[in-house]
Design a protein that fits this description.
The chain has 369 residues and is an alpha+beta fold. The protein contains ten helices and seven strands. The strands form two sheets. Strands 2-4-5-7-6 form a five-stranded mixed sheet. It has a two-stranded antiparallel sheet with strand order 1-3. A hairpin with a 2-residue loop joins strand 6 (350-355) and strand 7. Helix 3 (63-114) packs parallel to helix 4 (129-178).
Amino acid sequence: MKRYEEWGIYLSRFKRFFFWEKSIIWKIMFINGMVIGIVIWLVGVSVKDFACLLVEQYEFINEEKQDFFNSTMHFYLLRASLIAIIVAACIYYFLIRRILVPLQNLMKSTQLMTEGEYPDPIKVNSDDETGQLSRHFNQMIVTLRQTEESRKQMLSDVSHELRTPLSNLNGYLEALSSGVIQGDSKLYRSLHEESMHLTYLVDHLHQLAVWETKRLNKPRLQHMDMEKVMQTSIQSFELELKNKSILCEIHLETATVQGDEIGLRQVMTNLLKNAIQYDRGGFIRIIGDTIKNEYRVTITNLGQPIPTEKANRIFERFYRIDPSRHRDTGGSGLGLAIAKEIVEQHHGDIGLISNLNEHSFWFTIPITR
């Protein structure tokens, strides 16, 4: 019984030595070494046996010399097999390392990610599948870092946007409840404005969350006339344009697109709100025309100058040109982000062309043929 236990211990040590779980290179080398050794041994034994058979058949030498010949053949067979295995193993080791080292680096990097750390980019030295895998992994790390930074920035912006109106509401309500101040129409109007601002912000956050969910679930698109969609959106702003004495110049072409009508109207609404809020020239020009296989909508007006470095970030969530984020100089910073999300889900593009104080917001939607 003890003897079987000892054999079990030896076998376990043998497996741990040759099949070490954390070193795949030794596994591969051992398996390939076994295959090479078996092939060499079978070929060598066949040649040796054939040579010995010839010697015995034709009786060229006596029995003593024949034994010497057999032992010599056996010796050279063993030596040739060992040399071949060692040389093949050395060559194989250096070749396989070029493949396995990047995989080992990937393993270390993924281990760091499971621990909550972002690893340094993996050095890529080849264009094969392993090199492509390393490049994709590096790109994934960059994307995850950007997503994490965006998430942190979004949490910071949301808390900043909510802190001021909530503090004002809590302060006034506490003062009213304790009798420190008496309520009047002006105070109640101010409290109502704070409440409306919170409702407006939460509504925009909800819209953004809804459209991000649609990106995963694929929105249902239907054929529609883009001109009618735009006309409906513009008509809802006629009273506001009239009250602010803003002249609206409209040039629309007819084209059929495949999209979500509510979403496209939301894009127009957000862009028009933005143009009206920041208008400084008293006019807005809206153009809808077909360019190749796309329907392009452009909304142009005069507003405050936008620096180039800020124009590139204007569609980011919660981004505001005014760093103080004062309510009188801007909205929640989500309207343009929502518009971008909707347009991208329609496989279109959106952007801004700025020339001093003249700004043209545009977006494109593929035309249905």
